[in-house]
Amino acid sequence: MGNGLSEQPSFISNVPFFQSFHIAILGLDSAGKTTVLYRLQFNEFVNTVPTKGFNSEKVKVSLGGHRTVTFHFWDVGGQEKLRPLWKSYTRCTDGIIFVVDSVDAERMEEAKTELHKIAKTSENQGVPLLVVANKQDLRHSLGLDEIEKLLALKELGPGTPWHLQPACAIIGDGLRDGLDKLHDMILKRRKVLRQQRKKR
Ligand code: G3D
Ligand code: MG
């Protein structure tokens, strides 16, 4: 699910392997951000403690089409008092992963407010957004359509490419597919930016 900007671009094969992408992992506290990070890094479940500041890891990820891509993830604490820091971590970021707890219907409105706030920051205009609908393994998790509506993803506008990915971070389900989409969106945006620069 997304706004149609994430189709596989044909120029992927031209991208060098050593490229590293800066990705900020954001979301409310307890959504599963740190679990996502360590699942991607160690390919196993790591018991987490609430993040006081941030975790930063460079991780090589195998994506579809035999691509191996290095991501530099910044997992920033999601407690209310830490959210003002998000702005610093998204400065010059290639992409944003916003993790939501699919069971936490009560805080979906709060997640929506924070998500829109960060997406609309002037530095983040056009930065691709992967929304991870996490904890889909739990019985009362909301479905994708409902999450899309509650987060008002369509209101992000055509300038922000986004993709909504169902996932279960403790097992790892959905994470690689989501990163695949994010990577495609990042490359597509870079191509557009390059073309715009050439025209000037
Ligand atoms: P945060 O970094 O966003 O604050 P954490 O969140 O990664 O610390 O995770 C918060 C809690 O959610 C953890 O449980 C973690 O195990 C759990 N969690 C993360 N992802 C999933 C998932 O996909 N499914 C389920 N069922 N639980 C998940 P604790 O018990 O340690 O608070
Ligand atoms: Mg954390």
Automatic annotation (TrEMBL):
Write out the entry's keywords from A to Z: Cell membrane, Cytoplasm, GTP-binding, Lipoprotein, Magnesium, Membrane, Metal-binding, Myristate, Nucleotide-binding, Nucleus
Name any GO cellular component annotation: plasma membrane
The record, for InterPro entries, names: P-loop_NTPase, Small_GTP-bd, Small_GTPase_ARF, Small_GTPase_ARF/SAR
Listed Gene3D superfamilies: P-loop containing nucleotide triphosphate hydrolases
**Which Pfam family is an annotated match for this chain, by its short name?**
Arf
Residues the entry annotates as binding Mg(2+): T34, T51
Keyword Ribosomal protein carried by entry: no
What does the record note on quaternary structure? Interacts with CYTH2. Interacts with KPNA2; the interaction is direct. Does not interact with ARL4A.
PANTHER family documented for this protein? ADP RIBOSYLATION FACTOR-RELATED (PTHR11711)
What function does this protein fulfil? Small GTP-binding protein which cycles between an inactive GDP-bound and an active GTP-bound form, and the rate of cycling is regulated by guanine nucleotide exchange factors (GEF) and GTPase-activating proteins (GAP). GTP-binding protein that does not act as an allosteric activator of the cholera toxin catalytic subunit. Recruits CYTH1, CYTH2, CYTH3 and CYTH4 to the plasma membrane in GDP-bound form.
The similarity annotation says: Belongs to the small GTPase superfamily. Arf family.
The molecule here is called: ADP-ribosylation factor-like protein 4A
Q: Which gene encodes it?
A: arl4aa
